[in-house]
Amino acid sequence: MNTLTLPIDPKRFLSDLHKLRSFGASGTGVVRPAFSEADVAARGWLAERMEAAGLQPHMDPAGNLFGLAGERSLLIGSHSDSQPEGGWLDGALGVVMGLEIARAAREAGGPAISCVSFQDEEGRYGALTGSDIWTGATTLDEADGFHATDGQSFAEARKAIAHLAQPGFVEHARFTGFLECHIEQGPVLDKAGESVGVVTSIVGLRQLQVTVRGQQNHAGTTPMAMRRDAFQGAVRIATMLNDRFRNLVTPQTVWTIGHMRLSPNASSIVPGKAVFTIQWRDGDADRLDRMERVIDSVLLEVENGTGLSVTTDRLRHDLAPVPMDAVLQSALAKAAGQVAPGKWRSMPSGALHDASNLSRLMPVGMLFVPSIGGISHDFAEDTAEADLVTGLEVLARAAAALAPA
Under DSSP, is residue 92 helix (H, G, I), strand (E, B) or coil? Predict the structure, then answer.
């Protein structure tokens, strides 16, 4: 491992981070969905900054933008697209950290560090779409058939980067590993007054769409005892899950009913149909299996006990828990102990990140900095500048130790 200390420039890093914030700025946040005018402009600017840093910009046909250093290098980055109403740091932080560390490494004459901004991590057209394509989990032809909620296809959307894109994809084998720094998007570090978190794993995720069918009827004349109310069935499912999970889950386990549609959704009609999602996340695949068995038993029990029909559809492929590489994790922990002694912890990631895709191809490691109030995916998302710089210093030390000379 290298012992070089990279000449990072916190002021330059913060300046670039705030410049990226200007693309799609809206109040304190950003509106920069994948392939939007703001996203394309941001990628064009990033390519210019990469080239000015002595890196070779390469945007592939999916919109993933790399700043390449040499034939063999450590890769650092994240994503620069945002939610429809997003925070200014989500993804962007990791991209600009990658740029600054790669630039500092060039200025020091090594080691070899490249940077990247993956496209459509936020899932306008899929989920982690750019890194899904780059890692081979999804082909470009398959992704071209994906559609945004407004009906636009991925194939149509990527025409917006035709003037920037180059043929072919960057070879995976030129990278020795991948580091990603991200805001926590949760309250743990902020509540504890800690500066950084070394990620141990990215949780697995499963998601079902549940359809409860009953009998639509008049809300004023149908006695309560004779109703087959689909919404009441959905509420019973939610209540039973909370009770049945109690002795199975850990404080890190989460489950969410996050989207619901009632039909016909009128105040004077007993709902005849309720459609909702159940999503559950945990770092232990066996616990995810056991939670699924609980869900199946609850749905069957509600169906048998109420006369309602309950059916399910899987909304997406299951995502298995992804442990971080032990060597990269150790380098990050060592750097955190040096830069922020007593102010860091090891912790899992409850959110999905591009690192989960890259783990199929190379060693990966992740670092978190605090989210003030635990807020993310909102214009109010923020992190203290001192914590941003601390994260940069930790990541740079680890990168210097891990990157090939």
Answer: helix
Go through 294-309 and write b for each residue having 16 or more CB atoms within 10 A of its CB, e for each that does not. Answer: bbeebbeebbeebebe
Query: Which tokens sit at 201?
Result: 């794993």
The alpha helices in 245-310, defined as continuous H runs, are 285-306
Q: Mean per-residue pLDDT for 149-174?
A: 95
**Of residues 371, 366, 369, 370, the one with CA closest to residue 355:** 366
In tens, the pLDDT along 26-58 reads 999 999 999 999 999 999 999 999 999 999 999
State the CB neighbour count (10 A cutoff) for residue 159: 10
The answer to whether the beta carbons of residues 86 and 32 sit under 8 Å apart is yes
Residue 178, beta-bridge partner list: 75, 364
* Residue 96 or residue 4, greater confidence: 96
Q: Are the beta carbons of 291 and 282 closer than 8 angstroms? A: yes
Q: The tokens 């794993």 sit on which residue?
A: 201
Distance of CA 69 to the CA centre of its chain: 26
Residue 5: Cβ within 10 Å count: 12
Three-state secondary structure call for residue 178: strand
Structure tokens at 362: 């190379």
Q: 163: how many CB neighbours lie within 10 A of its CB?
A: 9
The residues near 161 (Cβ < 8 Å, ≥ 6 apart) are: 35, 40, 43, 59, 63
pLDDT at 5: 81
Distances (CA, A) of 137 to 61, 127, 128, 313: 16, 11, 10, 22
The whole-number pLDDT of residue 2 equals 53
Q: Report the predicted TM-score, pTM, of the whole model to 2 decimal places.
A: 0.86
For residue 65, list its beta bridge partners.
59, 117
pLDDT at 363 over 90: yes
Entry field: residues in the chain: 405
**CB contact at 8 A, 382 and 199:** no
Could you give the CA distance from residue 402 to residue 374 in angstroms, rounded to a whole number? 30
Question: Residue 40 and residue 378: Cα distance in Å, rounded?
Answer: 21
